[in-house]
């Protein structure tokens, strides 16, 4: 899978002020969580996807692959919310019994599961917009300007980088094993997987030590200093952000249009 950082660097929104993108993304996510409105969540999902793909010029296939990752976990999670003990409720849509326990779905449980599903997916789409249009070091710069704890920012940057070191090491080991037919049969596949995990731990630890040594040789003293690009404040973008948020909130809260059901 293409690195998220690579997609962020090729985005057409890469040169936009990261503070503006950060505020827009986080503000939209906060409104999505606080309003708890299905209409608003759906509008946010569609709008964020459209801006990221069409305005940011991120390949639709790559965006689809990324959105499928949380989608799988969300589907599994909402099933446990939609299906619960129903007893003798008359609002049961369908039910089944397991060891004398009656389980099923009601209108209320499906509605609640739908709310959580769309709200979570909308929040993820907000974060994807930020991650796919803003390189991680610019996000760290924004957090520094917002006076986030220095230790938190440094750990966030290091952990993010080491994740890709881990994935890169695992990929190289897998290619090496696969080229030697290490996954041709089930028995050899299990054996190769065990060796991969062992080698991955040792190799990743060694590479992390090498990276830390390289940082120390460049006078690392516990703080990572980055060259920051200077961005101008765009009052036009700020105005557009305010208008977009106002329109989304107005549509989602318009009970006359949607009948007050959602």
UniProtKB/TrEMBL annotation:
It is found in: Cell membrane. The keyword Membrane applies. GO terms for biological process: cobalt ion transport. The keyword Transmembrane applies. One of its GO terms (cellular component) is ATP-binding cassette (ABC) transporter complex. InterPro entries: ABC/ECF_trnsptr_transmembrane (IPR003339), Cobalt_transport_CbiQ (IPR052770), ECF_CbiQ (IPR012809). It holds the Pfam family CbiQ. This is Cobalt ECF transporter T component CbiQ. It comes from Clostridium muellerianum.
């Amino acid at each position: 899978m293409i690195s998220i950082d690579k997609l962020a660097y090729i985005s057409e929104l890469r040169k936009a002020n990261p503070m503006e993108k950060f505020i827009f993304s986080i503000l939209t996510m906060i409104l999505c969580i606080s309003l708890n409105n299905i209409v608003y969540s759906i509008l946010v999902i569609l709008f964020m996807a459209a801006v990221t793909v069409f305005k940011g010029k991120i390949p639709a296939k790559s965006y689809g692959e990324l959105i499928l990752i949380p989608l799988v976990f969300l589907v599994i999670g909402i099933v446990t919310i939609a299906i619960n003990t129903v007893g003798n409720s008359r609002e049961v849509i369908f039910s089944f019994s397991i060891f004398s326990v009656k389980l099923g779905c009601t209108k209320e449980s499906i509605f609640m599961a739908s709310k959580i599903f769309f709200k979570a997916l909308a929040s993820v789409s907000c974060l994807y917009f930020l991650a796919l249009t803003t390189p991680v070091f610019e996000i760290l710069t924004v957090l520094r300007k917002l006076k986030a704890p220095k230790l938190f920012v440094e750990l966030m940057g290091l952990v993010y980088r080491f994740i890709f070191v881990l994935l890169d090491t695992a990929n190289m080991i897998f290619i090496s094993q696969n080229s030697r037919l290490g996954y041709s049969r089930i028995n050899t596949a299990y054996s190769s997987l065990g060796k991969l995990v062992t080698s991955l731990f040792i190799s990743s630890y060694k590479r992390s030590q090498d990276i830390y040594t390289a940082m120390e040789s460049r006078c690392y003293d516990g703080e990572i200093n980055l060259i920051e690009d200077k961005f101008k404040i765009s009052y036009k973008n700020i105005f557009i952000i305010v208008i977009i948020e106002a329109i989304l909130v107005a549509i989602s809260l318009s009970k006359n249009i949607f009948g007050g059901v959602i």
